User: Which sequence fits this backbone?
């Protein structure tokens, strides 16, 4: 009991030292802006695909790109809310990225049963990448992951696994989006194997990292 | 009668004043929180551990106070932190229990006599263990130094669980006899 009294005494003597964190919406605008600029810079560095306009006119490609964007933004939002102990009293912050993920999987599943669009590019032989794509996504995602982990660490997350998972999911989605707009390859098997499944692995890695990097 | 809403509002005001640098309000806030938390913890953990966990919760509240901007109710914020620290404590507690570890401080309090003056001191114990057959030494080492369960030791040494327990029991008996002499 005496220990508690002493502790309260000590803590109250340090009452005026904290500067409140800005609200999640303000941080979201700032972080979103920085990540957008970063994604554009990465796309310029990688070089956008020459048939971009043709592909964007294809509804399934446009939906894929749009859903990747939704996953990135909703994961960013979830990660930022999770940096507050009470996740800013918003229920189900992780629901939106999960719903977007389910929609994305459905979109990929639908494409499997549809006939191949003549505008799709399905390279064979030497034009096919593999691990390079995964490494490219990881490279693009490395800086946003580091930045976001630093940002979330400023808070006090009571859900470090989830927060870490959403951090790397945001970053990997940006990587996927950038590469999707750069690489001239619409093979579904290739995309699932070397782009999207590794993204899930990055998210799992983020959850594991969250335990250590977001401890407080 | 004080409603949950009134309490929430009162604590929110105290915390806002505390964030603005009012030490008395912050101290009042921490006192009220510690009172509620103590009741919350008593229903969930052993009485001996309540103060330790309460200290952790108060420290965490202080450490995370920059994440509270005074624009939302304070009680969900406080209880999120309390639940997080309680879960942390329970995780540690059950991990320790699963490995059969005993807290040395607790052991010290429950030991009946002054062990330093008895003939069964540390050196004697070591000597007695060293005289045991290799396999029994290994079993005791794995169970008491490394913290493995009898089942895990059995798995490592290719024995079944009961054989490990029997061997450990025999070893204890031998040690007890040797130390008793």
Assistant:
């Amino acid at each position: 009991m005496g220990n508690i009294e002493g502790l309260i005494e000590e803590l109250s003597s340090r009452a005026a030292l904290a500067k409140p964190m800005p609200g999640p919406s303000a941080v979201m605008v700032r972080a979103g802006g920085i990540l957008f600029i970063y994604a554009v810079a990465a796309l310029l560095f990688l070089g956008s695909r020459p048939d971009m306009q043709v592909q964007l006119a294809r509804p399934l490609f446009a939906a894929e790109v749009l859903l990747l964007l939704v996953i990135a933004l909703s994961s960013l939002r979830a990660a930022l809310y999770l940096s507050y102990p009470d996740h800013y009293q918003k229920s189900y912050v992780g629901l939106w990225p999960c719903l977007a993920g389910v929609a994305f999987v459905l979109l990929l599943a639908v494409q499997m049963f549809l006939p191949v669009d003549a505008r799709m590019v399905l390279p064979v032989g030497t034009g096919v990448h593999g691990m390079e794509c995964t490494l490219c996504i990881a490279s693009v995602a490395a800086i946003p992951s580091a930045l976001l982990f630093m940002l979330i660490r400023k808070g006090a997350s009571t859900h470090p696994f989830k927060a870490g998972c959403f951090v790397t999911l945001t970053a990997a989605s940006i990587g996927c989006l950038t590469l999707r707009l750069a690489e001239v390859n619409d093979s579904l098997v290739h995309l699932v194997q070397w782009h999207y499944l590794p993204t899930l692995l990055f998210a799992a890695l983020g959850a594991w990292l969250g335990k250590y990097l977001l401890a407080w | 009668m004080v409603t949950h809403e009134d309490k929430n509002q009162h604590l929110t005001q105290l915390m806002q004043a505390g964030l603005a640098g009012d030490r008395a309000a912050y101290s009042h806030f921490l006192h009220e929180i510690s009172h509620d938390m103590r009741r919350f913890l008593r229903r969930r953990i052993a009485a001996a551990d309540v103060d330790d966990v309460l200290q952790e919760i108060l420290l965490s509240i202080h450490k995370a106070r920059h994440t509270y901007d005074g624009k939302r109710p304070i009680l969900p914020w406080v209880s999120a932190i309390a639940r997080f620290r309680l879960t942390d404590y329970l995780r540690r507690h059950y991990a320790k229990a699963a490995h059969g570890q005993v807290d040395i401080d607790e052991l010290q309090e429950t030991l009946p006599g002054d062990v330093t003056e008895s003939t069964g001191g540390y050196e004697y114990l070591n000597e007695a263990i060293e005289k045991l057959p290799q396999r029994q030494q290994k079993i005791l080492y794995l169970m008491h130094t490394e913290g493995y369960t009898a089942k895990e030791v059995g798995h490592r040494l290719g024995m079944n669980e009961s054989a490990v327990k029997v061997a450990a029991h025999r070893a204890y008996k031998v040690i007890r006899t040797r130390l008793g002499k």
